[in-house]
Specification:
It is a single chain. By secondary structure, the chain is of the alpha/beta class. About 45% of the residues lie in helices and about 15% in strands. It contains 18 helices and 14 strands. Strand 7, helix 8 and strand 8 form a beta-alpha-beta unit. Helix 1 crosses helix 3, helix 5 packs parallel to helix 6 and helix 9 packs across helix 11. It binds nicotinamide-adenine-dinucleotide.
Amino acid sequence: MKITMVGTGYVGLVTGACFAEVGNDVLCLDVDAAKIRKLESGGIPIYEPGLAEVVKRNVAAGRLHFTTDAERAVLFGTVQCIAVGTPPGEDGSADLQHVIAAARNIGRHINEYRVVVDKSTVPVGTADKVRAAIAEELVKRGIKVPYAVVSNPEFLKEGAAVEDFMRPDRVVIGSDDAQATQIMRTLYAPFQRNHERLFLMDVRSAELTKYAANAMLATRISFMNELANLAERLGADIEEVRKGIGSDPRIGYQFLYAGIGYGGSCFPKDVKALIHTAEAAGGTLPVLEAVEQVNTEQKHVLARKILKRFGRVSGKRIAVWGLAFKPNTDDMREAPSQVLIEELLSNGATVSAYDPVAMPAARLAFSNLKGIAYADSPLGALEGADALAVVTEWKEFRSPDFQEIRARLKTPAVFDGRNLYDPEEMKRAGLEYYPVGRAAARS
Ligand SMILES: NC(=O)c1ccc[n+]([C@@H]2O[C@H](COP(=O)([O-])OP(=O)(O)OC[C@H]3O[C@@H](n4cnc5c(N)ncnc54)[C@H](O)[C@@H]3O)[C@@H](O)[C@H]2O)c1
């Protein structure tokens, strides 16, 4: 099948490469000429495990192509997937300008049947807007061309995106066009040979399903963070509580960790957008409003612990391990590290940071800030540092040499935003240990 991906970011590039991997012919369009140039010259603009190999293999096989030529892109694919960004607008609603621009472009050049697929995370009713934008362009051209608009929200996780796409938990398709439904079934058949994972529904339910999934996951995180803060006040241990409740299959262990708040390009904006959607529909979502409020507060927890320990941090140097919003990605969007680092710097501290892959993205994200040095190893970040803050749970931080940490830090204090370490072991190593939702440990 011939497929066009409109938008070649985290979702568009992974989706395009994976569709090519199963034998389709894929053309990826982007308005960012630098990104397309990089891809055309064999580079990969983002870090995503396994992606470089899939892209390379399919470019070599002649099944994956890149372009900035919008007309060529519309004429290419029977399926036109829109995977452009939907950032939050000023009022928290999803900003649909890129989605509508992509739809208009399809309307300007379409000349035979096309299935237009909304893959971006978009509010309920967007498929109608996409349909209307294409129709307006066709009216301007004075022609009639058949097309269908379907919703096919993407559930891949950054950090495991290729694996998630190749072996999806579910494929949600919202469609009211029989021909388009059949094409979508064919498109996804190679990804569900083991058993059917396709949920076919009406368009609006499909659009809402994506927001509901992210809102539920964000709720679990904020709930655990709220309980973690209570556990600290009560002298209980959130890690014990987590195990105690996660063992109930109705609750489960996944996504049940306390920490320093959710970040990334999806949860924060999608929670905001769903709250906005509810308001626009004349309702409210008080649970989700609280989820967002708890998350905003939680991003300050580590800085508060550091300030409490030292009284003031002016002139102190804090080592920060992990900058990406989660492991296995270089994505810095809404990363808790940003809140921590900005708070430390504004209190007069300096920061020496290390992240296995996100340092180039972090340099861009922090380009306006002074007082951050970038180390080339975890231990290197500790040189001359007064304390260590662990922000992202990369695997390489899970079992560090605690004696080395103690030897290098001026004050042997570790602030752990991810509860990676055993408080008893930290005590034995002579370290002060400040986790989240559990008692601090000092020898
Ligand atoms: N990142 C994720 O983990 C994830 C997961 C599921 C769903 N989503 C959703 O998928 C959508 C895309 O997210 P992303 O993280 O891939 O974004 P991204 O910012 O990484 O990529 C979007 C790309 O679209 C391009 N673009 C913008 N307007 C364009 C246009 N008119 N024509 C062609 N290209 C255009 C941009 O230049 C950019 O390269 C969002 O709605 C997001 O919420 C993201």
